[in-house]
Amino acid sequence: MKTTVSFSHIALIAFLVGVVFSPDQSSASYLTGSSSDQKPYLLAQVDPDEAYDPFTDYSEFDEESDEEADINFFRNGRFFTIGLAGGTRGFTGNFADAYGSGPTFGIFLSYFFDLRLALSLGFQTGDHGVGFTVNNGSKTYTGNVSLTAINFDLKYYLNTQNVTRGLADLNPYLLAGLGQFYRTYTISGLDGFSRDSTMGFDVGAGLEIPLMRKKAYLGIQAAYHYVNFSDENKSFIDGTEKLDKNLAGDFYDFLVILGMNF
């Protein structure tokens, strides 16, 4: 039995083979997502500069210099210091004629913002002999005057990294700030006590020498205190007797400070 294959059968078979093995242009473009001149497959590309990991890339520092400064502070810096001070206090102007120089003692607490800047809170007190004349020397008053100061100062430590090795460990600083000053008179021949207070300004400088592997320090400080008490440049005492010299001036002190670093 013979099988007859017509021309229509051959044309149908050729058409099916062309469809299977030769997909049209729109299908290729859909698979590749691009024009016909591209290869019919996808490529995955990753740019390492655009990759971001919120866990490994997090940093609280905006710049590397900030991070380096903080590491240096935690390794070599101090958080706060406390020191006991003792020294001498002197006076200027007419105060130098009426008040005698004398010892002064105090305590200082400093909080460090970084390696260079610190806020200092100080308490300082001392007693001094006092003597002044009235009515052209016809009468002399003597006694004691007590001066107490509470100081709020900013201390700026100078950079010593570029000096010689022996001086690099020293910590020189400048200070400036405000003070509240209290004065109490005890005068023979006058009843009771005379108390007054005033605000003033502080300026000074100092030097700290590390001790005990930088756990303690020995400091030297000089400060000038500008004050203006209420009776300065007044000519009378007790309202009736005229002073031969008006009480006016400022005072300064030289201190030795022994402190601990924390």
From TrEMBL:
- Record keyword Flavoprotein present: no
Q: Which domain of life is it from?
A: Bacteria
Name the UniProt key words of this record, in alphabetical order: Signal
Recorded hits in InterPro entries, A to Z, give:
Beta-barrel_OMP, OMP/PagP_B-barrel
Q: Where does the Outer membrane protein beta-barrel domain lie?
A: 97-239
State what protein this is by name: Outer membrane protein beta-barrel domain-containing protein
